[in-house]
Each structure stands twice: as C-alpha cells, then as structure tokens.
Design goal:
This protein has about 450 residues and is α+β, with helices and mostly antiparallel strands. Helices cover about 50% and strands about 15% of the residues. The chain has a six-stranded mixed sheet, sandwiched between helices. A two-stranded antiparallel sheet has the order 7-8. A two-stranded antiparallel ribbon has the order 9-10.
C-alpha cells in the first residue's frame, strides 16, 4: 500500500506554552457530541489544529480553528466549523515533508463567514507552530494511533520526461540541472512561506490597530459625555450664583437707601437731643443684625443648593439602574419563549446568518439574537470594530460616496463623486467623504476622474 492511500486525522490543542493535548479526530467528535468533556479547558477559548496525515506521518492538510468550552469543560454546542471541507479547499501552505500542504487559517479562509473562528500560525524563529506540529506528529504519531504505511517505497522515481529515452546531456549537466531545479523549487517554497508570514503579521497588526482605535473611540465618547454633564452642572451653578448675587446687590441697595434716609433724618433732627441719637444707633444695630441673619440664611441656601446638585446625579444614576433592571426583568420574561424557539431551531442544525456591508456574512448565535434584533446596526458595528455612529457615517458614505464639502448655497453640499472607502475602520469622517483636491466647487482633477471612471 502506498503512503498516499493511508491517511489519518489528528486534532492538536495549543496553549501559551505550545501544544498541550493531542487526539484522533474520532475522539474530538465525541467531545463535540457532548459525550465527554475536557476539564482542563473549562471556561476557555482554545486554539486547535486539524491535521490530515499520510502513512509516512507527514502532514498534507491543516485547519487552524478556535473552539469555546463552558465552565464544565463541555464543548460549545453551536460550534459548526466544517474542518474537512476547509482542509480540502485550503490554499497552499508551507512544505512539511510531503510537499506544500493545503492550509486554512484566518489569513486565507476559503469560506468567508468562518474566518472569525480561525487563527493565524506563529512563524517566528524558535516559535514556529508548523515545526512544532511536524515534530509532534513524527514523535507521538504511533502512540496516538495514526495509521502508518509499513510498505514504504525507497526507490528513486525516474522523472517521466527522462524515462524510456536515451540521455542527450552529460551526467554533470544532468546533475547540475537537477540541482538548479531543486534549488528553484526550494526558493519558491521559501518565498511562499515568507508571503504567508507577512500576510499573517499584517492581519494581526491591522486587527490590533482596529481594536485600539475602537477602544479610543469608546473612551472619547465617554469623556465627551462626562464633559457635557460637567458643563451642564457648571451652567446651572453659574445661573444660581448669578441669581444670588442679584439678590445680594438688591439687599445692599436697600441698606444704602436706609442709611441715606437715616442720615437725612439725623440732619433734620440734629437739634432734638441725644435721645434721637440713641434711637438711631439702636436702629443701626438692629439693621446690621438683620443683615447678618439674612447673609447667614443666604449662605445656608447656597450650601443646600450645592449639596442638591452633588446628590442629584447619584439619585438619577440609581433610578436609571432600577429602570434598567426592571426592563431587563421584563425583557427576560417576554423573550424567554422566543429564545426557546431559537435554541430549538439551532439544535436542529439551522444557522442564523445576516449580511451587513463592511461586516459581510455574520453568524448570529441564538443567545445573541435578541441583542441583534434590538439594534442590528450596532451589532454589525461591533463586528467591524467601530462605534455605531462611525458605522452609520461610513454606511451613508458607502451607499452614496459624494463630496460633503458645503457649497455655500442653501446649506447644500458639493455632491461630486469621491473614491469610496470599502472598509469601515479605514473610513475617517470629515476626511474620506470630501475631496480636498477638488473643492471648493470641485476643480477638475483628471487623476480622480480616471479612478472613478475605472471603477
């Protein structure tokens, strides 16, 4: 029996140290069917590798996938990645001993909507996942139960071009040509491996940048909301302070008027004797005491207002939490029946897939269907690693890519065609939706016209 006729299927699991567990595909199917669990993977998302191995323990095809386990170590029942189909239709990968393998990973996935459930291999010197898989298959393949071809053909095959005809070149030239062909093949494989490594690094960096940009946008929105809240409080306090100042000025004007009146009366009754002076002094003391009391009352009112402003936000926050809790409880009771129907459909093998521009085909688990139905646009925005407002702005640009520079006539925009940005997280509001080279009034720009005509 030839090595090509003998094939086995193996599943390898990875952790932060490397390959942590290996098994046959039949054992993995038992895990997927819920017959057994893996306690060491409890409440984790685990990276796995599906390997198609020939009789010489050489890998011919590989699929790098991820799978979730619950807190009891049981596999996610909604997991439905077609490993054999992906392995059969995977793109060309590195040579692991039996020629270039068929590889399906995050950077080259033959089925677009399964891309999020795949991962890219590490290819750094000293931490190469392909080398680790190759060495483990050779070392532990017989113990795992992989089929091995005991009848290996060690004879050297004659190239079909040279078989059955007399050589027309010297042996030295023939050896030189074989070496050149072998070197050319080796260099071609190295170039393909380097391209795969560059592509995985670019995808990793792009995803990391998108996540950082998404976190920065969320933080910016939170800070803007907090700033608006503080500004509102400041305006309210400023208004109250102005009202108290006006009241204080009015009291001061009354005091000054009374003082002038007393002075006029004192001048008129200067000859009435010391009794009037005593009465005047008593009146001044009583008036000053009254003013001090009014000042103390005003100070207490100002302090009470400030405490009301400080405690009002806490009360509002508590009320909002109570309202949200009541809504969640009502939503759970209302959606329990629908959720059971969705879960039953999902158990029957149905998948819920929606298409959104920029996000492509999205697989929606049953437990997330309520969230998707509440706000499909926000759900798609999270899949694209952008905020909902950013996704809506990009969607308006994607559906109608025109220049948004104001034309200055009845608040109309320019409306000339611009180059459309295809990826949401690459769209920049205020930059991508306007043509800086063609406005104002979109001057002729033959370069952009040619691009738009080409599209």
């Amino acid at each position: 029996m030839s090595a090509s006729a003998v094939t086995s299927e193996a599943i390898l699991f990875f952790d932060h140290r490397g390959i942590s567990k290996s098994m046959l595909y039949s054992d993995f199917e038992a895990i997927l069917d819920g017959m057994v669990g893996v306690p060491e993977f409890a409440d984790k998302e685990v990276r796995g590798a599906y390997c198609l191995v020939n009789g010489h323990l050489k890998v011919k095809a590989m699929v790098l996938f991820t799978i979730d386990f619950d807190e009891d170590g049981m596999a996610d029942t909604t997991w439905n990645v077609p490993l054999r189909h992906l392995a059969e239709h995977g793109a060309q990968g590195p040579d692991m001993g039996a020629g270039p393998i068929r590889l399906a990973c995050r950077s080259q996935c033959p089925v677009a909507w399964h891309q999020d459930q795949l991962w890219d291999p590490g290819m750094k010197p000293g931490a190469n996942d392909f080398i680790a898989i190759r060495d483990l298959i050779l070392e532990r393949g017989p113990k795992m139960g992989l089929e091995i071809d005991d009848d290996m053909d060690t004879s050297v095959a004659v190239p079909p071009v040279l078989a059955g005809q007399a050589p027309t070149v010297t042996p030295d030239d023939d050896d030189s040509r074989k070496k050149e062909d072998a070197e050319r093949v080796r260099l071609a494989r190295i170039i393909k491996e380097l391209r795969l490594r560059v592509q995985t690094m670019e995808n990793s960096q792009t995803e990391e940048v998108a996540k950082l940009r998404y976190a920065a946008q969320q933080k910016e929105e939170i800070l803007n909301a907090q700033l608006e809240k503080v500004l509102g409080q400041f305006k309210a306090l400023k208004s109250q302070n102005g009202a108290l100042r006006e009241q204080n000025d009015s009291l001061k004007a009354q005091v000054q008027s009374l003082n002038r009146s007393l002075e006029e009366q004192s001048h008129q009754s200067a000859n009435q004797g010391s009794e009037l002076e005593v009465l005047t002094e008593q009146y001044k003391l009583a008036l000053e005491q009254r003013l001090e009391e009014e000042r103390a009352k005003l100070s207490e009112q100002i302090h009470a207002k400030e405490m009301d402003v400080l405690t009002r936000d806490d009360v509002i926050g508590q009320l909002k939490e109570q309202i949200s809790e009541l809504k969640r409880n009502q939503g759970k009771e209302a959606s329990s029946g629908a959720q059971k129907v969705l879960e039953k459909l999902e158990d029957l093998g149905l998948s819920f897939i929606a298409f959104h521009p920029g996000a492509g085909h999205i697989s929606i688990p049953a437990e997330q269907m309520s969230e998707y139905m509440d706000n499909p646009v926000a759900f798609a925005a999270r899949k694209c690693l952008v905020t909902e407002d950013h996704y809506r702005a990009w969607l308006a640009h994607y559906e109608n890519p025109v220049c948004q520079v104001s034309a200055g006539v009845d608040s109309q925009v320019c409306g000339k065609r611009v180059i459309r940005v295809e990826v949401p997280n690459q769209f920049k509001p205020g930059v991508s939706d306007r043509n800086a080279n063609r406005c104002p009034n979109c001057r002729n720009d033959s370069a952009i016209d040619n691009v738009l005509k080409f599209r």
